[in-house]
């Protein structure tokens, strides 16, 4: 009876569209999808997740019971399947001494409902995939929580990604992905790290108490909007990965974020150009609200910035800031004006009109 009810629930989960829809390529799916059960007490249930995956065809579902958790294994998902845990709090995959706990090597994979952890220095979820969805998981106590390599058009949403020794989420040459509504906290290096990754959407995430909140290196055309970023070392950093044959951060949009109470700058640009910072609340950061260093033609406007003891905005050169883009701000009745200069640095505040 329990297996029958689980089957009905799985069918409903697959039929009812989620808040973030998942595109499924019907040509990759088998005509008759099956459900394979892991753990529990049913006859014919598999004792390991990997054994069940090995038995599937594209389009099948592997459902993992919490009764037999934790599952001490490293899992490779090399087929287009749904991998579903019964309860994300208590259905645990505990990886061994390998590079990853879960490695996704096929497209159109959905993973939901697990705690994924490894107390050694190995990654939680390694993605080398397109059009896959990672949702409603807890990824903790790994090295990098979730890492995307050469992966595009994936959705990562509603996950708890915390207490990892490296980055919470790392995008490595990965484009057109969406990271939405995740809780990314207490990761030692950064909450979210980009390297040469373009056209991604990062929105509505809680990014708190990490080394740095978000670091973009050599990345372009990303949208970072409506995130809550607080109590990190720096809130958001844009910089080239290297100044040897550099690829700069350009044409990124940082909009509508709340960036507060970070230990250093709220936003820090280094050798970054033609980006837009608009409509953010940047307050209570211990140094500058925004620091632009060797960066030019950035559009900074309509932000609410209240940061002491140093300055609201600090630039190394006048050309660092597109002042022409900051005339009268009709919503706050203020203009951006320099109020002091020292050793080549300019300090800017909004002057009331």
Please tell me about this protein's structure.
The protein is mainly β and 353 residues long. It has a single domain (88-352), classed as Single-stranded right-handed beta-helix, Pectin lyase-like (Pectate Lyase C-like, 3 Solenoid), CATH 2.160.20.10. The chain contains 2 helices and 37 strands. The chain has helices at residues 2-15, 49-55; strands at residues 35-38, 61-64, 75-77, 82-85, 92-94, 100-104, 110-112, 115-117, 123-127, 133-135, 138-140, 146-149, 155-157, 160-162, 167-172, 178-180, 183-185, 190-195, 201-203, 206-208, 212-217, 223-225, 228-230, 236-239, 249-250, 253-255, 258-260, 267-270, 272-273, 276-278, 281-283, 290-293, 299-301, 304-306, 313-315, 334-342, 345-352. The strands form 4 sheets. A 13-stranded mixed β-sheet has the order 3-6-9-12-15-18-21-24-28-32-35-37-36. A 12-stranded parallel β-sheet has the order 1-2-4-7-10-13-16-19-22-26-30-33, sandwiched between helices. A hairpin with a 2-residue loop joins strand 36 and strand 37 (345-352). The radius of gyration is 23 Å and the shape is elongated. The model is unreliable at 15-31 and 323-342 (pLDDT under 50).
- Termini separation: 71 Å
Using the 3D structure, state the CATH architecture: 3 Solenoid
- What share of residues is helical? under 10%
CATH superfamily: Single-stranded right-handed beta-helix, Pectin lyase-like
- Rg, alpha carbons: 23 Å
Approximate strand percentage = 35-45%
Number of helices: 2
> Which residues sit in consecutive blocks of at least 5 with pLDDT less than 50?
15-31, 323-342
Strand order of the largest sheet: 3-6-9-12-15-18-21-24-28-32-35-37-36
- Average pLDDT confidence is 84
The coarse silhouette is elongated
- Name of the top-level CATH class: Mainly Beta
